[in-house]
């Protein structure tokens, strides 16, 4: 077992001593601090500690990358510092004092969507697989025949059976998988309202019930609303007023507005209703008004806001200047990650999926991750004789190609700066090509090389080309920049740093 005593002692000294630590915990690979004065942490000294693989500040937390042995390091640090760790949630709460209002808003978005992203990723993969079953022609299984003569379409091209048309087994698989896909996407509001209740500390089952009232089978399905005449929309008749019975399947913003209203109502009612009767009246007076307001005010408003946002983004992605949108988004997505603003893209992606059956935004995010990993690959070869560097860069590149960018971005690329810029350029070019050809994903997926599994099958060829661009360009530019003396002098201090508490 590695002895981290000296490294832990050095980290405590370089971070400003125990009096500078407001809270500390650790995750799978990183020590996570909330510092009373972040300026006292000496980045350069800390990054020279043998056990440390990089540092960065995000969401008001000063994070030190240790690696898989972080739990052992943390135990040693706890003994030396005398600081007992707290839970991750307590660290998040403490870190808010170092965040400005925008950072706090982005942090809330991240905490709402993080618990449901695994389900969304699975849903995207399932939709992609179903696309293959339903769309790919199976020439080897025979052409569609009519009286022994191959059928052709209006253009005179042969018509081929798809996989589900020629195989009862795969037809059954396709139908069965929709059970999961529908549960994930059509009933997404349930996950959102539950996650908000969990994040806000209100009653989670009430969040779940609220979500169900937005997607109940007795409501007109949201996907059927555009094709239904106003006179045919069902409604609740209260005599002197009526409420349309419209569902909000797959809608993000209506669910978020309703979820936060429920949480704030419940938390407020707890303060004014006596404890003896709170179990009865708090849920009643929180849930019933929220459901009513959700279907009369928040739902319609949220739907309209969602339409505006998705239409604006979709117009940018598919309009005459889509190439510019793709170039800019592809280039500057990585800097958004540094600030935490990238969390807003989850809601936009899901709204695009709900409104247009896919997202053009997420493919560029996957390409950005690939580009960052590719820049690290170049650093591996440039510093191939440096064993300590390899111990950091090789795992960082692998995790980045699998969609986890933090070790690569904060441990390598931002530290040297020029690989970060090389990756931005490569990502921008790949995003440009992806937007020109309207590359679309079924939904959010694994944000690296496996991301192609979430891409709609008709765009696989062009997305492969974009992946090649995101791999080759950052590698070539990183090598080129490494030969330039000006770039060699650059480092993390040359990058714009997000200011805490501003």
From TrEMBL:
CDD domains assigned: PTS_IIB_glc (cd00212)
Transmembrane segments: 105-129, 176-197, 204-225, 245-265, 277-301, 321-341, 361-382, 394-413, 420-439, 459-481
InterPro entries linked: Glu_permease_IIB, PTrfase_EIIB_Cys, PTS_EIIC, PTS_EIIC_1, PTS_IIB_1, PTS_IIBC_treh, PTS_Sugar-Specific_Components
Protein name (record): PTS system, trehalose-specific IIC component
Native organism: Desemzia incerta
Superkingdom: Bacteria
UniProtKB keywords: Cell membrane, Kinase, Membrane, Phosphotransferase system, Sugar transport, Transferase, Transmembrane, Transmembrane helix, Transport
Residue ranges of every copy of the PTS EIIB type-1 domain listed in the record: 5-87
Any Pfam family hit: PTS_EIIB
Gene Ontology molecular functions: kinase activity; protein-N(PI)-phosphohistidine-sugar phosphotransferase activity; protein-phosphocysteine-trehalose phosphotransferase system transporter activity; trehalose transmembrane transporter activity
Compartment(s) where it occurs, according to its Swiss-Prot or TrEMBL record: Cell membrane
GO cellular component, one term: plasma membrane
Bilayer topology annotation: Multi-pass membrane protein
GO biological process: phosphoenolpyruvate-dependent sugar phosphotransferase system
Location of the active site: 27 (phosphocysteine intermediate)
Domain PTS EIIC type-1: 107-497
């Amino acid at each position: 077992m590695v002895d981290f005593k000296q490294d832990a002692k050095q980290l405590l000294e370089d971070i400003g001593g125990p009096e500078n630590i407001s809270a500390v915990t650790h995750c799978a690979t990183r020590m996570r601090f909330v510092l009373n004065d972040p300026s006292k942490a000496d980045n350069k000294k800390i990054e020279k500690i043998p056990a440390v693989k990089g540092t960065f500040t995000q969401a008001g937390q000063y994070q030190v990358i240790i690696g898989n042995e972080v739990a052992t390091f943390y135990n040693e640090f706890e003994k030396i510092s005398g600081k007992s760790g707290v839970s991750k949630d307590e660290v998040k709460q403490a870190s808010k004092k170092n965040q400005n209002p925008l950072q706090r808003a982005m942090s809330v978005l991240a905490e709402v969507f993080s618990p449901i992203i695994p389900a969304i990723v699975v849903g995207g993969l399932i939709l992609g697989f179903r696309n293959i079953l339903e769309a790919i022609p199976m020439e080897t299984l025979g052409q569609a025949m009519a009286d022994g003569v191959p059928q052709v379409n209006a253009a005179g091209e042969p018509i081929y059976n798809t996989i589900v048309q020629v195989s009862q087994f795969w037809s059954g698989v396709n139908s069965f998988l929709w059970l999961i896909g529908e549960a994930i996407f059509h009933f997404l509001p349930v996950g959102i309202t539950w996650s908000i209740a969990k994040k806000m500390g209100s009653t989670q089952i009430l969040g779940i019930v609220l979500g169900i009232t937005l997607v109940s089978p007795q409501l007109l399905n949201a996907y059927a609303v555009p094709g239904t005449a106003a006179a045919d929309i069902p409604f609740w008749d209260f005599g002197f007023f009526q409420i349309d019975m419209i569902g909000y399947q797959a809608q993000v913003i209506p669910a978020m507005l309703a979820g936060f209203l429920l949480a704030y109502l419940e938390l407020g009612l707890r303060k004014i209703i006596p404890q003896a009767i709170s179990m009865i009246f708090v849920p009643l007076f929180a849930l019933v008004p929220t459901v009513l307001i959700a279907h009369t005010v928040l739902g319609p408003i949220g739907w309209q806001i969602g339409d505006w946002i998705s239409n604006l983004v979709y117009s940018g992605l598919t309009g005459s200047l889509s190439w510019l949108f793709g170039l800019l988004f592809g280039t500057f997505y990585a800097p958004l990650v540094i600030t935490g603003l990238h969390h807003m893209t989850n809601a936009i992606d899901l709204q695009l999926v709900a409104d247009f059956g896919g997202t053009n935004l997420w493919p560029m995010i996957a390409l950005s991750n690939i580009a960052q990993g590719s820049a690290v690959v170049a650093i591996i070869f440039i510093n191939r004789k440096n064993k300590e560097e390899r111990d950091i860069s090789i795992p960082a590149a692998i995790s980045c190609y699998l969609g986890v960018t933090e070790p690569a971005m904060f441990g390598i690329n931002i530290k040297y700066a020029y690989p970060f810029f090389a990756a931005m350029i490569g990502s921008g070019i790949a995003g440009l090509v992806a937007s020109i050809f309207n590359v679309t994903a079924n939904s959010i997926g694994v944000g690296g090389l496996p991301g192609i599994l979430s891409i709609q099958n008709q765009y696989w060829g062009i997305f492969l080309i974009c992946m090649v661009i995101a791999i080759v360009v950052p590698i070539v530019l990183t090598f080129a920049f490494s030969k330039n003396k000006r770039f060699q002098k650059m480092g993390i201090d040359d990058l714009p740093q997000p200011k805490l508490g501003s």
